[in-house]
Amino acid sequence: MNHFAFYGRVSTEDQQDPTSSLNWQLARSRQLIEASGGEIVDEFFDIGQSRSLPWKRRPEAARLLDSLADPSRGFDAVVIGEPQRAFYGNQFGLTFPVFVHYGVTLWVPEVGGAIDPGSDAHDLVMSLYGGMSKGERNRIKTRVRAAMASQAAIEGRFLGGRPPYGYRLADAGQHPNPSKAAIGQRLHVLEPDPETAPNVVRIFTEFISGAGLYSIAEGLTRDSILSPSGHDAARNRHRASSKGVWSKIAVRSILQNPRYTGFQVWNRQQRHEELLDVEDVSLGHQSKMRWNDRSEWIWSEEPTHEAIVTLETFTSAEAVFTGAQRAKVRRERTKHTYLLSGHVYCAECGRRMQGSWNHKRAYYRCKFPAEYAVAKDKHPKTIYVREDSLTPAIDKWLAQLFNDENIDETCAALETATGPDVAEQNRQTAARKKLKECDDKLAKYRLALEAGTDASIVGDWIQEVKLARKAAEIALRPRGSDGRMTSPEIKQLVTQLKGIVAILANADPEDRKAVYSELNLAVVYHDDGRMQVSAGPDACTNECVGGGT
User: Fold this and answer.
1) To which H or E segment does residue 262 belong?
2) CATH code where residue 258 lies
3) In this structure, are 408 and 316 located in the same domain?
4) 3-class SS at 59?
């Protein structure tokens, strides 16, 4: 009896129940292999993953590829119920060679059994289905966007999502789509919220009268009016640190939202797909939301809901923004490296501290009251600390962690703290670039040696680059099926870090920053000059480093 593994996929764009989709794909697969006496012994089924994602970026598909290299995997063939769901564009050509390499056959209904690696006809058929899959996805995107543009412009329909602050949803009758109406879906329309709509009017009135964004936010907070995230706290748990106070961004978002005029406006933002790595197209794309130019917005032909402000008021607010933007003097920004970027937190509010370059030095500061209207007695106006006040204490502590007495305990703490890495593809992309940079540097240094440059000077440079290259090689090594580093990998990483810590003070800033990131440092800074540093649940220290408030 042949033992098979099954692979299938269902995503949100398919509008299908995952259980039903899994069942019919399994049934089609079993129907294909039953004549040969085949049996499915393992299942790999991706839920909520777009077909455009390469196999290595789909959790279950990546797990299947990893299992191919395991001699004790328990199956010698893989069956796919529908190739359009599994392969997109040129993915078959990038994936099938892995199956061939490990001697695992791939079965699909479209060729009536196993794919023959030497058959041009089979290769053509699978490439055709990959193209059909890509074309189907593009057609769906085009139809959906065209339909939504028409519904917004002609029908003025509310197209879903959260209602803007100041509005709430009201029932607008039965859904016109019979299938959606059959399952109880209803149309909705925006109506002013009696509790929050007056606040929107107040914001527009004060802004047009000359008040600044911060001044408006400060007044709303002082009057104990909850911000949009505080008013709807259940859906804004990620905003808990703002504690319901108003920010300049919240005020600006309200002033720039045209739906307060009573018109339905769609396409203010659009999802764009960008290559994850232009040097490795096989990694596929990543989606990013971009603001569209106002000329691309879709306005309803007539007002669709009760206006909170008039169109003239909204236009006046826009004019204020336009004048302010024209008055700004743009200047070129200088790129600086912050060694602890993203790792320093303010003890008062729990937010990440921002990097700031002053007097040719790197600082970290928290200006929470400058963005949010917080009473000064609850949070100092500005908390800041110099980077070179933090790093010596951190390096000293790291040196102690990696000495012979503590290395085993450090490995255990890192293994406990290491969780699934959702940005593994980004990490590996950066590591590949770092490897190329290191190889280019080593080649230049060898040329310098051949040209007669002092060997002692070049030798130090080469040693630094070799250490950076080793860290990049470690980052490129495949992780376990759950994305966690294994104990041997952590042990080897820590052993390498023993050498890196010794030269941190003189290392290249980008290499030094990479070491801190790999250790997952978290620095909590108090406005009285105390610092708490951790690299896992059991590895932490307290230091007094000074600083300023």
Assistant:
1) none
2) 3.90.1750.20
3) no
4) helix
